[in-house]
Amino acid sequence: MRVRFQADADLDGRILRGIRRTAPEIDIRTAADAGVAGLQDPEVLRISADSGRILVSQDRHTMPGHFSRFSARTQTPGVILLREAISISTAIEEIVLIWSASEAAEWIGRLVWIPL
Q1: Contact of 42 with 70, CB cutoff 8 Å
Q2: Global pTM?
Q3: How many CA atoms lie within 13 A of 70 on its CB side?
């Protein structure tokens, strides 16, 4: 099955727009479309998991701990965290690469930092 993504509310809009311009066929749902803006991390993780979408986030401070606790009790499609110094173009390239070169099953239960 193809990878599907859920953008966290903190994901830079330039990254989201760039992904859509570069590969419009990628299934990436915005925070607004999913209703996750303003929600706490555990709820964002639950919504992403319920929809089978890998969460893409820039929340480097609290998301790793919440993911660890969440994934200990619930199967999760995974989380991709963007490192602080990542450029917009690198973030776009790496997310497109993940989408094009992998399957959703490869990401289950994983938290991955990009750039890799």
Answers
A1: yes
A2: 0.95
A3: 27
Write out pLDDT tens, residues 33-71.
999 999 999 999 999 999 999 999 999 999 999 999 999
78: left (phi over 0), alpha (psi -120 to 50) or beta: left
Lookup result for tokens 């490192």 = 83
Query: Please, what is the angle between helix 63-73 and helix 41-50, to 10°?
Result: 50
**Domains located in the chain, CATH noted:** 5-114 (3.40.50)
Instruction: Give dist(CA 87, CA 108) in Å, integer.
Output: 26
Contact present, 106 and 80 (Cβ < 8 Å):
no
pLDDT digits (tens, 9 = 90+) for 3-16: 999 999 999 999 99
